[in-house]
Amino acid sequence: MFKGLILGILLGMLLIAGGVYYYFASGRAPVATSATPIPFEKTLSGMALHAYLDKLPHPEPQVPTDEANLVSGAKVYKQHCATCHGLPGEPKGAIALGMYPAPPQLFLGVTDDDAWESYWKVENGIRMSGMPAFKDRLTEKQIWQVAVLVKNADKIPESVKKELTANASTPMETAMPSSKQVATAPNNPKQTKK
Ligand code: HEC
């Protein structure tokens, strides 16, 4: 009787493992960004991320939330984040529209993450989401500055808004400003006259 029970449980587990394997191996799992989510994909990945983050220390921001830091954060944001996360008053760009999961538009609403949590996400990235890790590409100070910026996205002063939107007509041009700069450079009369 007891042996039968164990055998039943083992067989059940084998069937489930086989079913999961078959689901992926037979090409039934969604792979395109526009396809429906894998069952429980969002729940499980969200659960894993939060369980992990909960165990970490939750430090206070290491830079004060003042105008200078917000402006520096805006410079970082424009160069590295706007392509995916958008700019105040700008429509979503092609990259943001084509991603799954969709990058939240950080100036449309405000993230409910505390600054330390955004710091962690920017430093380490998020697996299976397209959110890159910026560790070794940005300094700790720059990451705090941009984390404080997104935390305060709904109350940025005019100067910060200007920094974010200067010379920008689409997030794509903001992320890759070189062509735009040539077109509007004052020392290039051919370009500025038209
Ligand atoms: C290539 C696109 C891409 C770039 C560039 C990018 N991100 Fe992200 N980011 C994402 C995606 C996609 C998510 C959503 C992840 C998810 O749903 O699990 C995300 C999530 C986040 C979150 C969590 C938001 C929330 O409320 O859950 C923060 C904060 C964030 N990114 C900040 C940044 C910052 C700051 C930068 C620039 C230094 C940046 N990201 C650059 C794609 C990007």
Supply the CATH architecture of the domain at 67-174.
Orthogonal Bundle
In total, how many beta strands? Answer: 0
Q: List unreliable stretches of 5+ residues.
A: 179-194
Shape: elongated
C-alpha termini separation: 88 Å
Strand residue percentage: under 5%
Helix content: 55-70%
Structure description:
There is one protein chain. With about 190 residues, the protein is mainly α. It has a domain at about 65-175: Orthogonal Bundle (Cytochrome Bc1 Complex, Chain D, domain 2). The protein is about 55% helix and about 0% strand. It has helices at about 1-25, 40-55, 65-80, 80-85, 95, 115-125, 140-150, 160-165, 170-175, 180-185, 190-194. Heme C (HEC) binds near residues 99, 111, 113, 122 and 131.
Q: Topology of this protein?
A:
Elements: H1 2-25, H2 41-54, H3 67-80, H4 82-85, H5 94-97, H6 115-124, H7 140-151, H8 158-165, H9 171-175, H10 178-184, H11 189-193
Helix pairs in contact: 3-7, 3-8, 6-7
The structure holds heme C.
Heme C binds at residues 76, 80-81, 83-85, 99, 101, 103-104, 111, 113, 118, 121-122, 126, 129-132, 134, 146, 150.
